[in-house]
Amino acid sequence: MAMVLDTGASAVVLTHEAAKAAGLPLDFIKYNVNVDTANGRAQAAAVTLDRITVGGIVERSVPALIAPPGQLKVSLLGMSFLDRLESWEVRGGKLMMRPN
Does domain 3-98 have CATH number 2.40.70.10? Predict the structure, then answer.
C-alpha cells in the first residue's frame, strides 16, 4: 500500500480503500472522531492496527484512523508511527528511519 509521509498528521490515516484491502472490518466502524485537516473539519474512524511494516521496520498495535470513502486520495504515514522510531529524517529526497 502506498503512503505519503505527513508529519502534520498526528496519526496514521488510511483511505477507506486501503482499510478494505487490509481486511479491516469496515461494517463495524463508526466515523465519530473529529479531525482537523487542511481542507477543514472532517470525521474519521479510530482503529488500532495489528502491525505496520515499512521496509524492515515493524511496529505493532499502532493507533490509526480510517477516512470515510472518497475523503482521502492516499493513506498518510503520520506521527502515531513515526513517534515510535528512534529517529527519522528526510535526506536527499529519501526518508531515513531508525527503529528503536
Answer: yes
